[in-house]
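haha ok so turns out i had the wrong file open the whole time. this is the CORRECT one, sorry everyone. sequence first:
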Amino acid sequence: MEAQPVRWRKSSRSTAQGQCIELSEPVGMIRDSKDPDGPTLKADVPAFVRAVKAGRFDR
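then structure:
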């Protein structure tokens, strides 16, 4: 079975100076858009998105 290639998706609202992340397709990984060769975080992306929308990461 061949591994599916990973594609990365960044928000259309992202700017060069922003603190943005990218989400993988297929779903399951997150990375810093400013460091595409850096580490990735395996995550429950739907749960992460729900937490962001709920304001759990607001300062």
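The mean pLDDT is 87.
again sry for the mixup
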